[in-house]
Amino acid sequence: MAFIELKNIRKKYENNADYTVHDFNLDIEKGEFIVFVGPSGCGKSTTLRMIAGLEDITEGDLMIGGERMNDRPPKDRQVAMVFQSYALFPFLTVYDNIGFGLKIRKEDKQARDEKIRRASGILGLDNYLDKKPGDLSGGQKQRVALGRAIVNQAPVFLMDEPLSNLDAKLRGQMREEIVHLHREVGATTIYVTHDQIEAMTMGDRIVVLKDGHIMQVGTPEEIYNNPANAFVASFIGTPPMNFVQGDIHDGCLHMKDGQRLCDVTDDVAARNSQVTVGIRPETVEFAKHADQGVAATVERAELLGADYNLYVNIDGSRVIIRRGVADGPFQEGDQLNLTFPLEALYLFDQQTGARL
Ligand SMILES: Nc1ncnc2c1ncn2[C@@H]1O[C@H](COP(=O)(O)OP(=O)(O)OP(=O)(O)O)[C@@H](O)[C@H]1O
Ligand SMILES: [Mg+2]
Predict the structure, then answer these.
(1) Among protein residues, the one whose CA lies closest to atom 18 of ligand 1
(2) What is the pLDDT of residue 173?
(3) Which residue CA neighbors atom 31 of ligand 1 most closely?
(4) Most exposed among 79, 94, 128, 146, judged by the fewest C-beta atoms under 10 Å?
(5) 127 CB less than 6 Å from ligand 1?
(6) In this predicted model, what pLDDT tens digit does every residue of 259-316 receive, in sequence order?
(7) Angstrom distance (rounded) from CA 117 to CA 121
(8) Which atom of ligand 1 is nearest to the CA of 42?
(9) Distance from the CA of 236 to the center of ligand 1, in angstroms?
(10) Which atom of ligand 1 is nearest to the CA of 48?
(11) Binding site membership of 16 for ligand 1 (Cβ less than 6 Å)
(12) Range(s) within the chain of domains with CATH label 3.40.50.300
């Protein structure tokens, strides 16, 4: 039995005609770091709030530690929640903000003090305990919010986009800190984000959502290397996977540019159909000889530091490719000859988007 079980969970808001979350099934093991990722409005927060007890569960069962939680109030679910807006009390010091829940629960002063100091040590807040939230940076405020979750010693942490108010650099830093914190504290964590980089770098497993449906559950490697469908393939990865039209006939895959790739597997070759071909930007290669490959023109070259993103035009289709600086320099107007290694291509059904 898994520590947290979501069984056929559904959510319908009163005023909405359709379900917002459809038949959500997931088993989470103790200590796992799970990330819910997906575009805005796909139901991430709704699902998290149902787990927290801040939102009613319309249908299905939520089990934590083997007990059904549907009808329990939030305080009896063993969860601590961290929000995007830090929800700190502006008139209390950092010390009292971290210890607020403990005080409410009437823990004695010394036990409270030990827990607060342990949390502030982990989070590097020792020098700020006397300050008020108004005197802190965004990252420090978020750390105070995390501190409040830590001292509650809840076995489950629920985090809803806790870093989205921070600038890019601080976000990267806090990402590290939360992963570190998870190692230290060991609480089972469900982390909601629409940021695929956070999902890839933080999660033991990622749940990709779209329109209230689970598209795929897997480790970051599985999601990246083995996307179940075109949506997952396009959502995870920067720059995103390229999609071009392909045509299967006479037992071969034909790219729109005329490249013939005959080694497709027999069951795919038997289809005789139009397919969507997915190509990750980093897998496109340069032809060894000038008379090989597909002609492409560089329309824009973005130097990111270690890599270039090249926006190239292949016979009217736009494809992004990624190459290391060592292959450059590149500039607008460069003519390239590209090849697409068969083993790096993904084929998707053109209608359903399912991976073939
Ligand atoms: N209280 C509510 N009443 C009615 N509909 C709601 C309510 N809260 C959310 N919704 C709708 O449910 C859907 C899912 O919302 P939710 O907040 O779970 O999305 P999300 O994935 O967290 O998006 P975001 O990334 O923007 O935070 C949205 O279409 C939203 O409009
Ligand atoms: Mg949300």
Answers:
(1) 43
(2) 82
(3) 41
(4) 128
(5) no
(6) 666 666 777 767 768 889 899 999 998 888 777 778 889 999 999 999 999 999 887 7
(7) 6
(8) 21
(9) 21
(10) 18
(11) yes
(12) 4-235
pLDDT band (50, 70, 90) for residue 163: confident
For the cut 70, the answer to whether the pLDDT of residue 188 exceeds it is yes
Q: Is 59 left (phi over 0), alpha (psi -120 to 50) or beta?
A: beta
129 contact partners, CB below 8 Å, separation of at least 6:
93, 94, 95, 116, 120
> Which pLDDT score, from 0 to 100, does residue 245 have?
85
- The per-residue pLDDT for 257 is 63
Instruction: Report which protein residue has its CA nearest ligand 1's atom 3.
Output: 13
Instruction: Name the CATH architecture for the domain at 4-235.
Output: 3-Layer(aba) Sandwich (3.40)
Measure Cα distances from 69 to 54, 72, 159, 235, 242 in Å: 12, 5, 19, 32, 43
